[in-house]
Amino acid sequence: GAGVSQSPSNKVTEKGKDVELRCDPISGHTALYWYRQSLGQGLEFLIYFQGNSAPDKSGLPSDRFSAERTGGSVSTLTIQRTQQEDSAVYLCASSVKPSGRSDTQYFGPGTRLTVL
Amino acid sequence: AQSVTQLGSHVSVSEGALVLLRCNYSSSVPPYLFWYVQYPNQGLQLLLKYTSAATLVKGINGFEAEFKKSETSFHLTKPSAHMSDAAEYFCAVAGANSKLTFGKGITLSVRP
Question: How far is CA B21 from CA A5, A110, B5, B12, in A?
Answer without folding.
Answer: 29, 25, 11, 11
